Amino acid sequence: MNSETTKPTQPSPLTRQEHNLLVQLAEGSTRTQVAKAWDISVSRVNLLMREVEKKLGARTTEHAVAIAIRSGWH
User: Fold this and answer.
1) This prediction's pTM
2) Which of 9, 28, 34, 38 is surrounded by the most beta carbons within 10 Å?
3) In the chain, what are the domain boundaries?
């Protein structure tokens, strides 16, 4: 999620941690890799991602990434 996309259409509803998680997953990290890097459990990563999907109205992680890119949240 880089600056080559459009400007944000509205402020992101995501917390900094949720945004960082979405960026890490969009860049190809697995949930297990994120958990190890952040020193948290995979269950916590899964919970954070469910919150991201809920806030964005996304059905999947990929859908959440697409919404964030289209919205210009990078």
Assistant:
1) 0.79
2) 34
3) 16-71
